[in-house]
């Protein structure tokens, strides 16, 4: 039996005795099982696998314990994966990520009662919690330079697309922009990798590679090794809010249903009339050959939530330098707006996010079949319903609870207007045919059926 003890790093190295006691109290709670699984995912950083059962199967004997010390708390790993070690020593970045998991899931999870009904539910309290978690993670420190670009895109992309994400990251890095992604592989890793080279060439010492994840998806998308600031939000809705509040601009690469979910979430917010004057640069980009992908996405957006939504983004194909230049110009407008509004540079308080975008959507057969997938509503409400539908498909594809739900009860059923469901079906089929639902080489069985 292999045991490894880790000294605390970062903010977790300075805890009071009461805080240590509170942490130890969580070892018998539902949070602790979540904490164990997230740590195991972090320890498998770099492993190309998005099936949690395959990832976790070899490590049934893995355990993690909290060891109380006068100065705080240590972590003891029992039978950890060898892939996390170099010549017997745990990789430094993985060490840091483990304590980020401890901070976000146990300390903050206990503070905000993630697994209890007393967790924040109203809009103001949810935003305050997102702010507090980012503040504790020190993600807001250094974010007042107005240079944080959030990059979204698929974990399952081809080599040409991956190289393109690196080139875009490189051009952003040359212009001293920092990168924030969902922290996994593919389009979440490429921009960070490219930016490190751009930063190195400019001797830019403040390079930030922020990864924001959530417990139910981290096993499918373990943090890549370049992430130097890891934040784990309690659910997908808090994760998405953290992205848009932290971001000064967003670049979206080709992806699958998860990327479509993120885009719908963002557009639904930007369509709110209270956000009409707020500059928020959004660029959809990919390499030559991705034109048909973006045409399909653009057509879907126009046909479902309208031309106003289409006006909120710009499509640039096969031109990384232009992406970086347009983003730099957009950040200038963001700076002027924040100054005029008196809003913080580090956290976008003035962005209005309705509660329907903040409340956790739990995908079950009942909630999925009950989604209002029809045009007899305003476009923002339809964006919410479509976002939830795609979120449920993500859960059925890669999240442990979603996969188990599908195994027990069969595929989710999506019903709605015939024309709308035909468009949804066409878009999803394109993701399947392009192998954007699972990693290349993995057989994909749809976790949904479309009923018109």
Automatic annotation (TrEMBL):
* Highest taxon in the source lineage: Bacteria
Q: Which residues form the Pyrimidine/purine nucleotide 5'-monophosphate nucleosidase C-terminal domain?
A: 333-450
Question: What does the entry list under GO cellular component?
Answer: cytosol
- The segment(s) forming the Pyrimidine/purine nucleotide 5'-monophosphate nucleosidase N-terminal domain are 4-112
* EC number of the protein: 3.2.2.4
Catalysed reaction equations from the record = AMP + H2O = D-ribose 5-phosphate + adenine
Report the GO molecular function annotations: AMP nucleosidase activity
Q: Which UniProt keywords apply?
A: Glycosidase, Hydrolase
**Pfam families noted in UniProt:** DUF4478, Lysine_decarbox, PpnN_C
Would you indicate the residue range of the signal peptide?
none
Q: Which NCBIfam families match?
A: Nsidase_PpnN
Tell me the protein's name.
Answer: AMP nucleosidase
User: What's the encoding gene here?
Assistant: ppnN
């Amino acid at each position: 039996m292999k045991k490894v003890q880790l000294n605390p790093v970062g903010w977790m190295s300075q805890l009071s005795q009461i805080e240590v006691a509170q942490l130890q109290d969580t070892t018998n709670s539902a949070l602790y099982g979540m904490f164990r699984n997230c740590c195991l995912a972090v320890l498998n950083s770099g492993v190309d696998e998005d099936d949690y059962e395959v990832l976790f199967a070899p490590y049934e004997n893995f355990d993690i314990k909290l060891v109380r010390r006068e100065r705080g708390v240590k972590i003891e790993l029992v039978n950890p994966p060898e892939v996390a070690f170099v010549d017997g020593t745990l990789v430094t970045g993985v060490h840091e990520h483990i304590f980020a998991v401890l901070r976000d899931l146990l300390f903050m999870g206990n503070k905000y009662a993630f697994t209890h009904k007393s967790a924040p539910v109203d809009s103001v309290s949810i935003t305050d919690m997102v702010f507090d978690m980012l503040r504790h993670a020190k993600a807001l420190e250094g974010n007042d330079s107005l240079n944080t670009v959030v990059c979204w895109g698929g974990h399952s992309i081809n080599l040409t697309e991956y190289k393109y994400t690196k080139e875009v990251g490189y051009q952003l890095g040359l212009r001293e922009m920092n990168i924030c992604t969902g922290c996994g592989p593919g389009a979440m890793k490429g921009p960070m990798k490219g930016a490190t080279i751009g930063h190195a060439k400019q001797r830019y010492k403040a390079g930030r590679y922020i990864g924001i994840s959530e417990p139910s998806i981290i096993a499918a998308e373990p943090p890549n090794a370049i992430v130097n600031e890891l934040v784990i939000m309690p659910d997908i809705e808090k994760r998405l809010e953290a992205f848009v509040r932290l971001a000064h601009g967003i670049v979206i690469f080709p992806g699958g249903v998860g990327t479509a979910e993120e885009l719908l979430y963002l557009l639904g917010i930007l369509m709110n009339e209270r956000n009409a004057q707020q500059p928020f640069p959004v660029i959809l980009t990919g390499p030559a050959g991705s034109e048909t992908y973006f045409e399909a996405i653009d057509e879907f957006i126009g046909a479902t939530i309208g031309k106003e939504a289409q006006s909120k983004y710009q499509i640039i194909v096969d031109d990384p330098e232009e992406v970086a230049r347009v983003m730099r110009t957009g950040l200038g407008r963001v700076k002027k707006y924040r100054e005029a509004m008196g809003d913080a540079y580090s956290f976008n308080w003035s962005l209005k996010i309705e509660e329907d975008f903040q409340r956790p959507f739990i995908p079950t057969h009942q909630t999925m079949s009950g989604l209002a997938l029809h045009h007899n509503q305003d476009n923002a409400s339809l964006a919410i319903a479509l976002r939830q539908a795609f979120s449920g498909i993500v859960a059925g594809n890669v999240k442990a609870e979603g996969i188990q739900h599908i195994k027990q009860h069969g595929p989710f059923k999506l019903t709605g207007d015939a024309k709308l469901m035909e468009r949804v079906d066409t878009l999803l089929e394109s993701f399947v045919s392009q192998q954007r639902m699972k990693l290349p080489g993995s057989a994909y069985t749809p976790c949904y059926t479309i009923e018109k």
